[in-house]
Amino acid sequence: MFSKTGFLLLILFQCFLFGGSNYYQGKFDSTKKQYLGAVVSGNKDKEIKYLKDLINYGKHLGINTLKYKKELNRLDKTSDLKKKITTSFKLEPKYNIKSVKHDKNSIIITFNQNIDSSYINFFEKKYKHYHRDYFDINGRYQYAKSKKITLKNVDKTIIYQHKKDILRIYIQNKKDPKTLFLTNKNQIIIKHIDIVSKKKKQIDKVKVLKEKISPSPAKAPSFLKDKKYTISDVRAVENTIIVEFNHKINKTYLDFYERKHKSFSRDYFDIKGNFKGAYNKKLKVSGIDKTVIYQHKKDKLRIYLQNRSNPKTIYIIGDNKIIIKNLSSLKKTKPLKKQDFIYPYEKTIVIDAGHGGKDPGATNGRKIYEKDIVLNISKFLRQELNRKGFKVQLTRDRDKYVKLGKRTKYANRKKADMFISIHANAVPKKKARKARGVETYFLSPARSARAKRVAALENKGDMGNMNWSSKSSLLTILNQGKITASNKMAIDIQKNMLYKLRKKYGKKAIRDGGVREGPFWVLVGAQMPSVLVEVGYISHPEEGRRIAKKSYQRLIAKAMADGIESYFLKN
User: Fold this and answer.
1) Rg of the Cα atoms in the chain
2) Which of 8-22, 367-381, 467-481, 520-534 is predicted least confidently?
3) Which of 348-352, 405-409, 485-489, 563-567 has the lowest mean pLDDT?
4) Cβ atoms 460, 389 nearer than 8 A
5) Phi, psi (5° rounding) for residue 106?
6) Which residue has the higher pLDDT, 94 or 449?
7) 217-255 burial code (b ≥16 CB/10 A, e <16)
């Protein structure tokens, strides 16, 4: 049962999210505010009165008023709602999962009602002799004990009722299972991607035939003889090239650049490592005129994609593999079906340039204002994301003031998949020479003094009358469902910013402020993963000059775009 404070904050949150124009909606909203005042003043009689009014207006609007009935029952012991509430629980269906079906490589979970992505929680575990992908699903299934699931090329698939309201499915393999999932109306679809596909088998057969027919295959250079090869496999599947290593790798293993020639363009990928089959390997990527692979140097494998028009490629670096994708082919192919994997170019990002108009934000005293710097970065970030295929909206595209509450409302109205607010940091003059670096925050009650300081600076003018304890309680309720996703996204953005900035300016010049939790009101109310990025300290003598330059702004925007892309490709 909700505590009084918890229930109060829930009512405040609902007032924030919902609005209406008709008579009952207006009455319902105004009564919520009156109820809020009654709770604050401690007037129990008025609380009871307004709760009864909320229940009455809720009936006319077709809103579920069970929580108000429960609160009324707690306050008013003479109420006859207790029996009604008990009855309503009994009338609810015991099992909300209608069916669980499967085919060769898919599991389809169908619910009795429409659902969203919050109904499934994915995680993976590595054991000594096998790997498991876990899917925890919010719901109950009547036949969980007796259900058997078999997937092609999967060692074991188990389904069981893990908790009263959580159905658990896990997929177990000796090697790491390649799985993905999506939600569609009243269904969750889990797919296992079978790497050993028929296409690969056919390619291998053709390769064997060519080797038999060819009298003198191309010889590898002498420096590759009697050498341990660090790359175990390179293969192409439709619009994707997969490069697998014998060991773990990081971002330093790939160097990407592009060249424009008179009649064609090329995207180059220089990869640290050597591959035994580099001189016999043929790669064909859909939507690309020519794909070439060869051992460029002793420890460098080169792959380039050539097209008449500029190839639109992206890359992902995993634990032991590099994945290169051609996005330009997507326009030429048939529209994706609902059961197919949805790639990031179908995502909507809302970018929020902090402050604006009458609120200049931080300044270094040299007519350099935070509001101008972050607006430039937001526009550069929009260009980068558009180039990658994302839909992008800005909360402001010029120097104007926008209230904090309206920024996330705008993102909700646009049904955004991600909200990113961009700011520049600052400290008092006494500490100006010491404080520097880039930081990424996600919404949560602050756990450090530094996070509280930054939040106080960015929250200026909003919720000023609420004490710290009340703010923390409200934040815990408002963003509980998106904290994990926001944290993951913040990590990806921070990693990419550090990588690109340090590559140009050096490790000493760019300090890692880390990924932190902070109570930023600009993120409150966002119904999607949301982060706040501090692009540097405008108050620092050297860093302040750097972040005011267009070259830095373009670079950090590109880094943020790479981080956003990395997040969506992994989640």
Assistant:
1) 28
2) 467-481
3) 405-409
4) no
5) -135, 150
6) 94
7) eeebeeebeeeeebbeebbbbebebbbbbeeebeeebbe
